[in-house]
Amino acid sequence: MNSDSPAARAKLGKVLVSAEQIAARMPALAREIVDWMGDGDDDLVLVPVMTGAFIFAADLVRHMPVRMRITLATVSSYPGASTASQGVRPLGDLPANLEGRRVLVIDDILDSGRTLRFLRERFESQKPARFATAVLLRKTIPEAMNTTCEFVGFDIPDEFVVGCGLDYDGCFRNLPDVRVLHPEGSAS
Ligand code: 5GP
Ligand code: MG
Known about the structure:
- By secondary structure, this protein is of the alpha/beta class.
- The protein has helices at 6-9, 19-37, 54-61, 114-124, 142-145, and strands at residues 11-17, 44-50, 69-70, 73-76, 89-90, 102-110, 130-139, 151-156, 161-162, 178-182.
- The chain has a single domain (19-155), classed as Rossmann fold (3-Layer(aba) Sandwich).
- It binds guanosine-5'-monophosphate and magnesium ion (MG).
- Guanosine-5'-monophosphate (5GP) binds at residues 52, 77-78, 85, 107-115, 160-162, 166-168.
């Protein structure tokens, strides 16, 4: 990494959700989702939103012992070293052929709600039999709390966080805990 990059100048702050708390939450959350999805048929499609949801999705699906298909969707909302939402842009094709299927979109965090609202609209227009969204984290701000999201791992305060899939300037996704990030290394 460039030693003067935004990620190198940033400073990690306190742990908001620990790896242990995340691991302990997965079985119950997975059970809730399986109860909603039902079992047995050939029509379950999980759509993790890349890149941030890759760790949460991997943790979750290993607690969901049902037949499912997993199809990735890539959208960009915080390009580069920005910490402010820039609007949603799909990168590449979004999953198609969802008509009549039970579809669960999985994302890392619900913040402004733009990503989930955008994907809900795009996917519901394909007439899935059921549609729901799941996030690991939801910020306790009005925009997030007023956005429909059926399954939430943890509610957190309005801080910019990294870890467990979430990045800043492309870094920190591999941190096992969810931590506050201070972009210019100020307070901790
Ligand atoms: P929304 O569209 O709800 O504003 O935000 C959803 C997307 O923005 C997330 O999937 C994530 O990529 C990014 N995002 C929102 N809040 C944060 C945050 O606190 N930290 C990081 N690293 N990304 C965030
Ligand atoms: Mg994202």
